[in-house]
Every structure is written in structure tokens, then in C-alpha cells.
Amino acid sequence: MSDTLTQPKAVRPSSDGDLRAALVHHLVDDHVVSPRRACLREQYEAVARCVRDVLTDRWLASTRTYDQVNPKRVYYLSMEYLIGRSLVKNIISLGMDGELRELVRREGFDWDAIVETEPDAGLGNGGLGRLAACYVDSMATLQLPAIGYGLRYDYGIFRQQIVNGYQVESPDNWLLEPDPWEVPRPHEQVEIKMQRTLRLSDDNHEQIPLQTMTLSGIPYDRPVVGYGGHTIGTLRLWRASTPDYFDLGEFNHGDFVRAMLRRDAAGTVTRVLYPDDSTMRGKVLRFVQEYFLVACSLADIVARFRRQNQDWCALPDKVAIQMNDTHPSLAVAELMRILLDVAKLDWDTAWDLTCRTLAYTNHTLLPEALERWPVMLLENLLPRHLEIIYEINERFLSDVRKRWPDDNDRIRRVSLIEEGPTKLVRMANLAIVGSHSTNGVAQIHSELLRTRVVPELAEIFPERFNNKTNGVTPRRWLLAANPELASLMTEAIGPDWITDLSQLRQLKALADDAGFREGLQKAKHDAKVRFADWLRSTSGEALDPDTIFDCQIKRIHEYKRQLLNLLQVIIQYNRLREDPGRDCTPRTVMFAGKAAPAYTLAKLIIKLINSVAATIDADPAVRGRLKVLFLPDYNVSLAERLIPAADVSEQISTAGYEASGTSNMKFMMNGALTVGTRDGATIEMAREAGPQNLFLFGLTAEQVVETRGWYNPWWHYDHNPEIRQALDLIFSDHFNQDEPGIFRPIHDALLAHGDYYMHLADLDAYLVTQDAVCTMYKTPDEWFRTVALNVAASGMFSSDRAVTEYAEQIWRVKRCPVAEEQQS
């Protein structure tokens, strides 16, 4: 950028000249730097603030409209929002993409480098957080009056490095520099009181009696730009602090370190996403985080409601609160506390309003993920909430006994309190009993939730259980992430698919069109080349774009079965070693994902993947025909590069364990073919595209349950030479000669402990399916005809469709368009 540009006044950019002037203003005034000398970070912040200038008036107009119309509003409570980078997404939604890129180019800045400077917002871990981010995007695009509530974590989940094949965690300090998208609102802070002050140590905690702990929740607002910029929603994130004072007495008596440390301790509450819950300290901190989110958000929601509504009985007509998984389940007790103790309502009225206001989304079938908190924690920190929970339980169980007077086992299973050596509060039960809707996130998940996880509760409240299959936003995952494929679609069927993904069904008629298939093939190959070039420039790793790009990217967990994928890779490796002339389609198998720091076996699986990758790379017999790669520090930005480049999507969880999945949907709409079990939303993908157009294999959820009692993994080891050879290779230290014996826990999981997730039971069928993938890939016309049919069938998996179903069937909330005069 030229130094001859004069310093402008602050403006709201509405023309090319205004935009250029605003860019200089934000460089010179905000950073006190000559434009020519601005570093990349300063350039990024200036560009981002220019965009925020454009959206500010529309953001304010959205707020004014809601204040004037007083519609029923949606409040989405989630511990995670994996939003990724905001710059590109926001300029596309505002229609500024070409204009801003051209301006940056003319001023001599590197657009790609500026985009790469923005960190991924460290507000989430995996699918749960990414789903929440997609949903708030859809709420804004659909012009629904909505606010998302979450926590403003100083540090994200963690940065993942691979050292000698092992995962090594380091802090994700994504807020190291100012975030140009957030707007702090210190004047809107709320105070949250807990019964006793916590003193935490590395391996224990104690409560200090007869004291209260007061936390201040300071809100930070981020704009959520609906496509077209008509509505700008808000994501409100809470940062924990102490009230604006400290113990002056302690300070004056010389104990100033202790006085200041008390303030710093409060900040620990929002210091990190997912503290390690293998320690008591981590468990207590996680509990406090969940209550802090709930208490701050409900205080804010109630304040908004009371500004325009004096009658508490109107609460369910004006407020819909969605609890995203069990983490915000304390909202049941907190809303009851407000209605009983603040509003002074009677119990029956308060309970009716609470149930009609709250709704609950369940995201898991894993028993360990259905949170249960020790009664002791509530007793010491939230005694009033525990009192309310006990009263809810007593009244609820009284009703159950009237229907089943002699069924004590039923009473025990549905109770909100789990009896035992450590008495626990079942948070999922609390959420179900205290809300009017409980939904799963895929048809099979909702059915298994109803019939296996909480069958008695579903029998008591059959009208409350429903399904809302997940969806993802096509704005980020197609329009922004895969511009060449997006352009091909727009050229074929017009641009309406961007806000109505069901329009993609029109592409089905083009599956037999040679020209369209060639366009798909070119878009895929170009995406593979772009990814390979980016990977080479950032890591030095070389990939061949002419190989099959076979991808499994998701959290590392035994039930997701990265180990199954790796076993078939080892068998393919053995086949090539034994028969170097074997006819095979060259394949690059890519893994990415993080293992929880305390999840030892998951971290060992990462080590095994990297050990196998290194061994294969060093073996000339398979070089150029098989490659394995683990991509470290998986995040949204990496996914946006890799998913458009993928040929094959691995969705191979043990059937009956994956709630839904969302990566499966992203891969599908980007033209990757699915290798998958009949699990989660993959079942619905097969229904939409036709099962013959996916590579399905393995036991069904019913078969998993039926075979559990007699399944013996040793049978497969004894009777299948290829499986035995692959396992022997692992356990003979072929892949880890410098660290003998390190993979013994994997041996124990697969053989000694019964292979709980049935890797070996599905391995034969998986190998046959992978051979079918290679066969089809050799025939590009057949492959890309199938790709076209999958892309055409992916329209059902838009987050717009999912959010519309929530709005119409659970929230009962309507669109509230921003009036044109409000935008002036």
C-alpha cells in the first residue's frame, strides 16, 4: 500500500473509495503504523475491522427490530462453538468477496497470507461445537431472532504436535492478540454467586465454609452474519472475572499477593476448554464452567425478557432455550430457582413455565458421556439448586409410582439421583424431565436413545421424544471451502442452492451428462492439487494427487475405529510386500484428529498410525502405491482444505455408537464417496443417495447387540491368516523396533479384553469393500457418476433444514426480517 495515502476519518464503507479509506484508517489510527510498514497481523486486523464496519449498521438494525417487534426468541446454550476463521465467511455472506480481495491486491498486500494470519477461534473441540457454529449461521440466514451463548475460553482444546509419533499437547493461545470480531460489553456483566469459595490444588480441592464465591460474567459479542447480510445474529461469550474489587484489608496488611491471586483464580473458570477431568481439580472446574454458562446466560435471557414483558407467564411465548447436550442441564434447576426465588411463583406454575421454555438435544449414546455430577459438588457449591433437584425428583418419582406402584427397578432407573457409594445427579435425566422436547440427531440415534438409553423415560414422556437429523452449512463447507465445485453447481442449476440445498436434487439429472462429470472430475483434481501444494509448502510432505485420497478425520476414539482403518492398511501393505506385481490402485490414506490428553489408548493409536506411516514410507516395495499420513492439529481450517480434496470418506464407527456425524455430510456434498457402517446419519445418506451409491459394510447396530454375548476376537485371529499376519506384525515390534512392546495395550484391547468395538468382526467385510472402491476408481465415468448422485442427494443435510425443523416443531419461533428502514 502506498504511503502517499492520507489519513481518513472513520467511515462506514459503502463504496470502493470508502473501503480503501477505511483500510488506511484502521492501519494508521488503530495501529499507529505506516501502511507500507504494517505487518501481516496488522493488515489482517485492519481488513477485519473494515468488514466489521460494514456489518455494524446491519447488526444494530437486527437488534432494533427485535426490540420493536418483541418476537419469540431462540437462545442456544452450548459449551462449544467451533467457528473456525471468520474473515472469509463474513465477506462471502456480505457479498464483499471479490471487492475486498481486489482492493487488497491493488494495495500490494498478499490476500492468502492475510487469511492465514487469522487463528481458528479456540471455542470447541469436534462435531458438537462445529454443529453449534453451523446452527447459529443458519439461524441468522433464516432470519430467526436468536442468540447463541457460550464461554470465551482463553485457550482452546490444545494445539497438537507430533513428536516421535506421539501426540504432544501445547496451549492454544488463540487470544494472544486482539480479536477484531468481538465486542466486549463490560456494562452488561452479571454477577454469579456460589455458596462457598473453592480452593483448588493439583490433585484435590476443598470448600471454605461460610463464604460465598462471586464471579462476574463479562459478555463478549461476536457477529453471526446471515447469508446476504440481511440479519446479523449474535454469539455472546462469557468471560469469568471477579467483581471490580479485591480485599483491601489483605492488601493493606501486606498480603497483596493473596489479594490479587483471588482475582486471578476467578479467571481460571474460562481459562481453558475441557479441563482434564481425570483429576478432581479438573472435574470441579468443569462443573463450575457449566454452571457459569447457565447462570450468566439465564440472567441475560431473563433480563431481556423482563425489559418488554411484565407477565412471567408469557415466558414460554417469548423465550425458547435449547440445551445443546447435557452440559447446560443445570438450566432446569437455575430457571426454577429464578422463578421460585426471584419471581416468587408457586411451584406448579414455575415448573410448567420451565418445562415449556426448555428443550434438550442429546448427542451421544455412550453412557460415560451422559454426565453425572456428585451430589457432594452441588451440596457444597449450589445447595439451593440441589434442594430444587431433590424436590423435582420427589414429585416426579411420586407420579411414576402412581403408574407403576411396585416397580422399584424402574424407579431406580428413572430417578434423577443415582444411588451408590458416591451419590450422583444424572444430568440427562434432569434435562429430559425438565424440558418439553428431547431430540436425537439422526434417525437411528433417536431410536436407540428412546429404546435403549432411556427407555423408561421415553415411555413416561413419549410426546417429548423426536428426531432432528444434523446438518452443516453449505456457505462454509461448499461456497467458501470449494469454490470450483460451487461454481460448477451454480452454472448448472443457478445460485439458489446456497440458501436452499434441496435444489441440488436437480443435479441428479446430470449424473449421466459427460460434460458435467468432466467438470466434477476437474474440480476434484484441482482441489487435490491445491491441497497437495499447500501441504508441501507448510510441512514439506509430498502427496501424489493422482492417488486415491482416502480420509478419516475426526476425534480419535476407539468407537470411531481409526484402528480398523489402520488394520486394513497393514493388510494391504502385506499384500504388496508379498506380491510386488499386484494390481492395485495407488492410495494415500490420511488420518487427522485429536485424542483427549488423558485417553491413553487413543494416543497410542496415533503413535501406531505414525509408526506404520514411517515404515511404509521407508519400504521401496510399496513406495508410490501406498502412503499413510497423519495430519497434526486438525481444525476447521484444515478441514476446509482437505474435505474438498477427498475421494473417499471413512465413516466406520461400530454400528450403534455414532450419534450422527457431520463430517460424513461435508464429505458427501463435496464429492467424496462414503465407506461406512450403517450408523449415525450415514444410514440416511444411503437412503437419500441409494445404498448402492455408498460403500456400506459390517454389522448393523442390532447385530452388534445380538453378537455381543458370544463374540470372540480370537476366532478371527485363528482362522484368518491375513488378520493374524497383520496383528503379529504390530505385536512383533515391526513398526516400533526402537520401542519394543509399546503396543501391548492395543493387543489387549483387540484380543485379551474381547475387542469391545468389534474391529476384527468387521475387518473381512471392510477389506472386500475397499477392493470395491479400488475397482470403481479405475473407471472414472462410473466413479464420477456416483459422485454426482451423492452430491445431488446431499441437500437434506443442510443446517438450514435442521434449524427450520427446530424452529417449527420445537421452538415455535418465526422469521423476523429486519425492515429496510432499520438498515439505513
Structure description:
- This protein has 824 residues and is an alpha/beta fold.
- It is 48% helix and 13% strand.
- It is built from 33 helices and 23 strands.
- Strands 1, 2, 5, 6, 9, 10, 11, 12, 16 and 17 form a 10-stranded mixed sheet that branches. A 6-stranded parallel sheet has the order 20-19-18-21-22-23, sandwiched between helices. Strands 13-15-14 form a 3-stranded antiparallel sheet.
- The protein is globular and about 80 Å long.
- The protein starts with 15 loop residues before the first helix and ends in a 13-residue tail after the last helix.
Overview features:
single chain; 33 helices; globular; 824 residues; ten-stranded mixed β-sheet; 48% helix; alpha/beta; 23 strands; six-stranded parallel β-sheet; disordered N terminus
Q: What's a quick, concise take on this entry?
A:
With 824 residues, the protein is α/β, with parallel strands linked by helices. The protein has 33 helices and 23 strands.
How would the blueprint of this fold be written?
Elements: H1 16-31, H2 40-69, E1 73-77, H3 87-94, H4 97-106, H5 111-117, H6 127-141, E2 146-151, E3 159-163, E4 166-170, E5 183-184, E6 190-194, E7 197-200, E8 205-208, E9 213-225, E10 232-241, H7 248-252, H8 256-267, H9 280-308, H10 315-318, E11 319-324, H11 331-342, H12 347-357, E12 358-361, E13 372-374, H13 375-381, H14 383-403, H15 408-414, E14 417-418, E15 424-426, H16 427-433, E16 438-440, H17 443-453, H18 455-460, E17 465-467, H19 474-480, H20 483-493, H21 514-539, E18 548-553, H22 562-578, E19 587-592, H23 600-617, E20 626-631, H24 636-642, E21 648-651, H25 663-669, E22 673-676, H26 682-689, E23 695-696, H27 701-707, H28 713-719, H29 721-731, H30 744-752, H31 759-777, H32 780-792, H33 799-811
